[in-house]
Design brief:
- By secondary structure, this protein is α/β, with parallel strands linked by helices.
- It has one domain: Spore Coat Polysaccharide Biosynthesis Protein SpsA, Chain A (Alpha-Beta Complex), CATH 3.90.550.
- Helix content is about 35%, strand content about 15%.
- The strands form 2 sheets. Strands 1-4-3-2-5-8-6-9 form an 8-stranded mixed β-sheet, sandwiched between helices. Strands 7-10 form a two-stranded parallel ribbon.
- Helix 5 runs parallel beside helix 8 and helix 7 (about 230-245) runs parallel beside helix 8 (about 270-295).
């Protein structure tokens, strides 16, 4: 799992809190810097504040300035004891600077600044690492564009809190779930992608391409992040696949998915093709490992056959 190493701050010389219109960190700042979220008069801004136990919501952003203020307020209204971690990929529209301003006024908001756009999966993995190190008991992942209704957050977290699940998926394709504002083509791609992955990988959840999920922290921490594919569509499939193969208890709760109202969708044909190819690759690698395991067994070993030990 990628480690989160932030440069230590000298205890004797605290940095004064930023003004509300403070500029984002310069490009030369270390990529691991994480702005904690003290109130302006309470404590200086440090590279990394003390951990906060409880649920953490990881919210990747890229050009989401029009959505961030209201979605962040709605998230914290739905989960008052949560920590909201905004992971911004150096958005040209100033989303990162806006996130800093929100964090300065709300101690439950923190900001992870990344130097460039590197894919949704990379942003999530980066945020997951910060949340786990920060003491999260549950880690929620969701979009910042209102496609995922914050009002569902309590229902998403509850099965984990009650010890009934290790991964909860906000599902469009379970009874009670659905999508609105989508054309026929988008519906076919999404539903077909989930069915394809379900059949090829032998998984039980119905919605494998959605990104609204809650993880038990110990389950998430047990998944090796190295080698996970970064694309948004395939990232969702692969993480559920790896959790399933590790024995995680997976539940689905119904959600209504709405297409974004502000900004442009980041879905593309390349992302879809990548997802299909990676699904086939995951299955092939699994079959190859199984075959190699069988071929390496010694036929002369008494333990290799039915009559062995």
């Amino acid at each position: 799992m990628p480690a989160f190493d932030a440069p230590p701050e000298p205890a004797a010389a605290p940095v004064p809190p930023p003004a509300p219109a403070a500029a984002p960190a310069p490009p030369s700042a270390p990529a691991a810097d994480l702005a904690s979220a003290p109130t302006p008069a309470a404590a200086p801004v440090v590279a990394r504040g003390p951990g906060r136990p409880g649920p953490w919501v990881v919210l990747p952003t890229y050009n989401e300035a029009g959505n961030l203020p209201l979605i962040s307020a709605a998230i914290l209204d739905a989960l008052p004891d949560a920590t909201l971690l905004v992971v911004d990929d150096n958005s040209p529209d100033g989303t990162g600077r806006l996130a800093d301003e929100l964090a300065a006024a709300e101690p439950r908001i923190r900001v992870r600044h990344r130097t460039a756009k590197q894919g949704l999966g990379r942003a999530y993995l980066d945020g997951f690492s910060v949340a786990l190190e920060g003491g999260a008991s549950v880690v929620v992942q969701m979009d910042a564009d209102w496609s995922h209704d914050p009002a569902v957050l309590p229902a998403l977290v509850r099965p984990i809190a009650e010890g009934e699940a290790d991964l909860v998926i906000g599902s469009r394709y379970t009874p009670g779930g659905g999508v609105v504002d989508w054309g026929l083509g988008r519906r076919i791609v999404s539903r077909g992608g989930s069915l394809f992955a379900k059949l090829v990988l032998g998984l039980t959840p119905n919605d494998l391409t959605g990104g609204y999920k809650a993880w038990r922290a110990t389950t998430l921490a047990a998944i090796p992040f190295e080698g996970i594919h970064a694309g948004g569509y395939v990232f969702q499939i692969e993480m559920t696949y790896r959790a399933s193969r590790a024995g995680a208890r997976i539940r689905e709760v119904p959600i209504t998915f709405r297409d974004r109202q502000i900004g442009q969708s980041k879905m593309s044909r390349r992302i879809i093709v990548e997802a299909l190819l990676v699904v086939l690759t995951l299955r092939w690698e699994e079959l190859r490992r199984s075959f190699e395991g069988v071929s390496r067994s010694d036929p002369g070993d008494p333990g290799a056959g039915p009559g062995g030990r």
